[in-house]
Amino acid sequence: MHKIDGAMKPTDFTLDEQMRITAHEIVKRKSLFHISEEDMLTLLEIKPVILADIEDIVNSFYAELVEVEGVAQVIGDAESLYRLRNHMQRYLRSLFEGTYDVEYVQSRLRIGLVHKRIGVPPKLYITAYQLLSKILREKLRIQNKTKSCDICNSRSTALENLMLFDLVLVFDTYIQGLVNEVKRSKDDLENYAHELENTVAKRTKELAEQASKDGLTGLYNQKTFFEYLNIELSRSQRRANNFTLCYFDLDNFKKANDTFGHKYGDAVLTNVATAIKHSLRKEDIGARYGGDEFCILFAETSAEQAKEICDRLITEFAKIDPECIVTFSIGLAEFTPESGLDADGLVKQADNAMYSSKKHPGNYITTYAAPPEDIETEEEEPESEIEYSDESATT
């Protein structure tokens, strides 16, 4: 790379040379934004879906964008809007090429440079970025409606990570342009750069949170729940504290879903999440384990104490929709440091207790109890059971 000094002109260097973005730096940035080889293949697989509707996507994007205050004034006229539509189609094609090398980075830096020169303020560029991200994610959601949530989430996450990678490159050129313009106003420039870093950091945090949460309920997903569970296992062994795992399933959920439709079924799941959030303490962790199954981690809590919180959970859910036919089958498993259980073993105990509750009327709570050591059983049966009827749960 050439050394940029006062004797050389900007035209002697490419944009990546001016910005000190080497091939090694690109690799580091991909790692920073969690863009893996698998993500690149995932984006390449999406390409036919995007290309099939690329004109509709671009038309929808600009139809909404020009309604944003200030955007129409920046674009200026119909001819400029026509050119922008063509540029956007090229941008979308490259977004799903699956190759993100120096040439790709150059094009993103050039986008930032052009937008800086024509006077597009960062707030409008971020608005456009968010709008395009929303439209693309919606397109993938519709196309993937028959596929598993894992496929939908992996595609959406790969797209979000790459678009965030692009956004930072674009704003790198914004920052560089400002440095060149406001050398006499160093304090103002530093403030702007700091605000921009906060914007990127906030978006990065939001993406990380999206990756850890279930999209429908807002509760933690199974992967994140196991991370918290392993942390709690280590902490409990270190501090010699007990804690309790709750595993519960929704009774009559399929019947409600089939009778009233999937939207109603989704509403039931969100109502369960609301009841969980209203019932738990700050230190507790609630998660959607999968389908209509949920888990709750009660930190430093005995099974007896956990039963009281589950009673409150049942009551909170009944308040939201008193006519709902869905009830809970709840299983509890208390962890003790001397048990030697790992995460999977503890979940299995709570799951066994939950299936015992399934044999009884709704809103039944079973606490797992290991069978006596001198009796061999083919199946572990919980011994301690407490029933909560619909009537008692609301008192």
Describe it.
Helix 12 (253-260) crosses helix 13 (262-279). The relative contact order is 0.07. It is built from 16 helices and six strands. The chain has two domains: 10-212, Globins (Globin-like, Orthogonal Bundle), CATH 1.10.490.10; 222-393, Reverse transcriptase/Diguanylate cyclase domain (Alpha-Beta Plaits, 2-Layer Sandwich). 62% of the residues lie in helices and 10% in strands. It starts with 14 loop residues before the first helix and ends with a helix.
The helical percent reads 55-70%
Task: Look at the structure and give the mean pLDDT.
Answer: 84
Return the CATH architecture of the largest domain: Orthogonal Bundle
Cα separation of the termini:
74 Å
Query: What is the number of beta strands?
Result: 6
Shape: elongated
Q: What is the helix tally? A: 16
The CATH superfamily of the largest domain turns out to be Globins
Name of the top-level CATH class of the largest domain: Mainly Alpha
Structural class: alpha+beta
Strand content: 5-15%
What order do the helices and strands come in, and which of them pair?
Layout (H helix, E strand, L loop, with lengths): L14 H4 L4 H10 L4 H16 L1 H12 L5 H5 L2 H18 L6 H16 L4 H22 L5 H33 L4 H27 L9 H18 L3 E9 L1 H8 L1 H18 L5 E6 L2 E6 L4 H18 L6 E9 L7 H15 L6 E4 L16 E4 L2 H4 L2
Parallel strand pairs: 4-5
Antiparallel strand pairs: 1-3, 1-4, 2-3, 5-6
